Structure formats: structure tokens, C-alpha cells
Amino acid sequence: MDIGPIVSTLRRHRTTAWLLVLEIALTCAIVCNAVFLIGQRLERVNMPSGVAEHELVQIQLGDLAAGEDRYARAQEDVALLHQVPGVESVAITNQVPFGGSSSNSGLRTDPAQRQPIVVASTYFGENLPQTLGTRLVAGRELVPEDYVNADAAVEALNEGRSKGLPTVTVVTRELGARLWPGQDPLGRTVYLTDTVGLRVVGVLDTLVRPNAYRDATAQYAMIVPLIMGTDKDESYLLRTRPQDRQRVLAAAAAALRKFDPQRVVTHTRTFDEIRREFFRSDREMAGTLLGVCIALLTVTALGIVGLASFWVSQRRRTIGVRRALGATRGDILRYFQTENFLLATAGIVLGMALAYGLNLFLMMHYELPRLPFGYLPAGALALWLLGQLAVLGPALRAAEVPPVVATRSA
Known about the structure:
Number of strands: 13
Number of domains: 2
Helix content: 40-55%
């Protein structure tokens, strides 16, 4: 089809045409970046934890009793929880994946280093790897002989003694690669201070941080073999079958209350609930951005429909003349579709430049990654299809204009 008459017509309506081009450009720029941000949020929501998520429940206590041996009580509680039908494993830990609050340590590979190489999340708790269900990819699991009393470790550290301190640890694959790039971390020593070094005896496939806000450091975690006591900052993790979680959670909390009525159970939740709460804002943001995309596309489609309908009503006599001169319905239909395609193309080209500029702004001010190139042609294709679908109704009405219209008075 000769596009010369189409371009000539658009020049006579340049203001209206440019308004539609700008609307398409803004839609392209915003939708491309919004879809990219939605993808980023969904990727974060689906971040692997490295634990048996559907088998874990957590019980958090508010300890009101004082003056008792919290380690002895912890052992009593663990023994009590093991008696609850359906409980397969129990651990007391200082934190849980996606729990939000994280205990961190600056790590060095040489005690003489002044600054830590990386800050990693540090998990404590007897029998914790087995309860979490972490997967070992190299080395060995932590064994009972590796564990030491946490208070005794603090006392030994304060007194400058090595006896009473833990000597081994297991680290995630990502943390090992960060500390010793291109090398096997097994057998190497990582230093928490210039005097406390832990030999790596195992490498975990994945274990996410409790505050996994940045993907680059989300897997920087390690487990140190410390035995925890009952305290308001610790919690009980129980592993059970997925179908038994709610029953086990209720029965375990009731058993703890009955054993010591002075303690208050502050939280009882499954790991699925922990994860859902941690990523709630990400899901809400993704939903908001999706709503913005739908609204923009709807407004753009309505703009195309409105403008095309206006032009059809204004050009009925012209269309009738063309029909009288031999133009078929298909010719009229292609005319309006081609006209819309040209406008959409101009808007998309401008929109791609705006999308790139908007992404640079977000990178500079919000530390977002660069917009992948693939989003631009995908957005262009979506807007081309949207434009053709939106103009189809008015174009079909234009194609139905009879030649007799040409003989009527204006």
C-alpha cells in the first residue's frame, strides 16, 4: 500500500497524531520498565531458601521466668517437643530464613586482615542443619562433638582462651566462592575475629539469610555449632510432615504452656507463613505495577479507538469517494490499520528511548539493574498488537461505508 496519502493526511492532523504518538511513547517507556520491575519482584519472591519449607514450624517464646538454668530448660523443652506426635526433629536457633532479624559476622580469611572480606549471616543451634533440611554438597555434617555451649564460648572469648570456642563451621556454596574464589573451601579457615578461626568442614548448597534484601548477598550464610538456651531471642524449630504442620504446631505450643505456665508463646507459625509475610510488600508492589500496566494499556487502547472513530466519522465522505472509485473494503481496512501502525511505530521508537532514559534514572537513584534489551522489542510487539486490535473496530466500520455516501451533500 502507498503510504504517501496516509502521511499527507497525518500532516494535516499533526497535533492529534502527535498526541497519540506521545501517549504510545509514554506507555511503552513505563510498561517496559514496570514489567521489568515486576519480573524482579517475582524473582525475589521465588528466591530459594535451601530448607524444607513445607515441613517446618516455628514457636517463639516470651520468657518471663528468671534465675533458672536456661540450657537445662532448653534440653527439657527439646525432649518434651520430641514427644509430640508427628515431630521428626527439633532445634533451638537464633534466627530463621526470611525471619527478618539477622545475626551477622564480618569474615576474614587471614587474621591479619584489617577489614572483613564479607559480612555473612551466622546461624546457631544444635541439630539445626538436620532440622532445616539443608542439602550438603561437599564435606560432612556437623556432629554432636562439634557443638559447644554458647555462654561458655562467650566466656572463653572474653578470657582469651581457645578452649570452649567452636572450631568448625559449614558455609554456603556462595559464601565459600566469595571467600576463596576458584578454590575449594573445605579445610580452609575463616576468621570471625583475629583470634577466632573456624575450619570449614561442610559446604551447603543453599541457605538464605533472614534479611535477604539483596540478591548478591542473599546466600552469604554459615552455621556455627553453638548450643542455645531458652531466651526471648531464640525460637524452636520443629520439622514434621506437611499435612501435620497445623496439628503439631498447636500440640507443641500447648505442651510448652502446660510444662511451664509462666512462659508466654508469642508466635506460632509455619515456614510458609514466615515466607509469605517476608515477601508481602514485594507481592503488593508487583500487583500495583501490574495494575498500572493494565491501566496504561487500557487508556492507550481507548485513545486509539477514540481517535480512529473520530477520523472515520470525519472522513466518511472521503471514504465514500474512494469506494466509488473502486477501493474495496479490504483497502479501507488496510488504510486505517497502516495509519495506526505508522503512529504506533513512531510512538514505540520514541518510547524505547524514554524507556532507556527512565531505566538509567532508576539505576542511578534506586540501584536497580539495567533493563535487559529483550524487554524493548517485546514491549514494541505488544503495543503494535494492541494498536492493531484497538483500531480494528473503527476500521471495520469505515470499511462498511457505502459508495453512495460520495453523492450526498456535506
